[in-house]
Here is the input.
Amino acid sequence: MLAEWTYKFWEHYYDWRWGIRTYAYVSEADLGYGQSLNHYAPMPYQVLFKVFDALPNEFRNGRLVDFGCGLGRVLVAAHRMGFASATGVELSSKLCDLAQPNIAGLPLEIVNQDASTYEIAPNSNVFLFYNPFTGEPLRKVLDNIEESLRTHPRPCAFIGYCIGSFEEAIQNRSNFKRLSLGHSVYPRAAWAVWTYSLAS
Here is the structure.
C-alpha cells in the first residue's frame, strides 16, 4: 500500500512540477494498435531517474531517441537532466497531439511515424525502449539502428525494459554488453542499460 502511494505521489508530483501531463494509461484497443504493439503507460519517474543515473555522462552529448514516446515524459526528463537533444518516435497520432503541449518551448521533437521506418540520425547515441512493441517491429528497429552504427561508428547505449521480448532480442545480438540492471517494486518493472560496440 505504501509503495503504491509513493509511486502515485511521484507520478503526480513531477508532472505538476514540470507543468506536463503524462500520467495516463491508454489501451492497445483505444489506440487502434495491432498485436505486436503495446498500450501506453509512461516509464515511472522513479525508474526513469535511476536509468539516467546509471547511464555514463558521455552519452548525454548526443541524441536520445525514445521509441514509443507516448506523451513525451522521457523526452522532458532527458532535457531536464542535461541531454543535448531528444527525439520521440510515436505511431499514434492521438498521443502525438496530446504530447505537444508537454514539449512546447523545449528543444525536443516528436515524430509521428512507424518506428520500423524511422531513419536513425548519425548523432543518435541513446535508444530507449519502454516495452513499446515486440516481434517483427522490434527486430526491424534494432536492425535499422545497427545499420546506422555500421555506417557511422560511434559509442551508444540502449535502455530497455528487460523482461521478455526486449531482453531476448538484445541478448541474441552479440555486440551488446549489459552495463547495469535495476528493478522497481511498484509498479513491478525491470530495466537494464546496454552498451554496443562493433565486432572487431
